[in-house]
Backbone:
């Protein structure tokens, strides 16, 4: 009977999400974990079989760092953003558009998902310009310095027509976070940014970010401090007050930008917990953090 109750609980969410497009971003730590990746592939398989349209965007920071060090290159990150010289760009192309993309495609294929591996360079999906030297502030010391991020791109235009064609025909796109400039030169783009701009371009109902933590925490060292629902304005307050720091700041900033660009909801949750995606989407309680552009009280009684 418990299983029947769960199915009945899921029914209104199945109706709500049917034929909706969702952009799911997974970090490199998820892709590197065989069990987590297999669980995600199973979840995506179920979503596609109930007619939910999925676009996956992946990073690969840990893998890029590992390969860089094997090649004698010490990675440099500033506030969660990777400085990308010519050698680091070569690593990014090998890892992002190569190893990780193929691993995700293989996991999806094992579970009957028709998936296509792409980067933002394919089909001119993402147009970017090289980021100029940027003034960055150290959250710890308060000092500011000029940082040259090298071959890092800022997205200037999005053409989602290829992705729309694929999802309309039942394919899951697996997109690595590379873009091309006007001359066709590849640039490394932050995967959270890619997911955000694609969610806006596709008119997605949800932007879902899978991380190694349960969601947004008031205390980063205490999983029980999970915030289940929050507004974009409240997230900004938490950033301004110093509750949210480090690499989580740009991640949440891009999610807020997606909401401001018309995406229905943003969700951040752990991709390391089995079936967390299904529990978030199809149960009343959910498991992660739902970020709403307006008063989350409007969503009371509704899962993510």
Residues:
């Amino acid at each position: 009977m418990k299983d029947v109750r769960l199915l009945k609980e899921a029914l209104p969410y199945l109706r709500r999400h049917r034929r909706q497009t969702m952009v799911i971003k997974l970090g490199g730590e998820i892709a590197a974990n065989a069990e987590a990746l297999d669980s995600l592939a199973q979840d995506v398989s179920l979503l596609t079989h109930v007619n939910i349209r999925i676009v996956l965007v992946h990073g690969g920071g840990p893998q890029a760092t590992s390969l860089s060090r094997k090649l004698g290159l010490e990675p440099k990150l500033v506030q969660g953003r990777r400085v990308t010289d010519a050698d680091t760009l070569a690593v990014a192309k090998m890892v992002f558009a190569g190893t990780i993309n193929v691993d995700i495609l293989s996991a999806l294929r094992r579970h009957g998902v028709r998936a296509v591996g792409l980067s933002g360079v394919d089909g001119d999906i993402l147009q970017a310009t090289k980021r100029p030297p940027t003034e960055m502030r150290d959250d710890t010391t308060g000092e500011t310095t000029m940082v040259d991020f090298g071959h890092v791109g800022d997205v200037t235009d999005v053409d989602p027509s290829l992705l729309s064609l694929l999802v309309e025909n039942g394919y899951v796109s697996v997109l690595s976070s590379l873009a091309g400039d006007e001359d066709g030169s590849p640039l490394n783009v932050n995967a959270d940014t890619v997911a955000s701009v694609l969610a806006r371009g596709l008119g997605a109902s949800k932007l879902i970010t899978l991380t190694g933590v349960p969601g947004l925490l008031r205390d980063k060292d205490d999983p029980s401090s999970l915030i289940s629902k929050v507004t974009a304005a409240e997230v900004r307050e938490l950033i301004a007050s110093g509750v949210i720091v480090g690499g989580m700041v740009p991640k949440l900033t891009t999610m807020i930008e997606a909401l401001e660009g018309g995406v229905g909801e943003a969700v951040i949750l752990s991709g390391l917990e089995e079936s967390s995606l299904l529990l978030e989407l199809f149960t009343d309680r959910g498991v992660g953090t739902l970020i709403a552009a307006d008063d989350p009280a409007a969503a009371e009684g509704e899962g993510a």
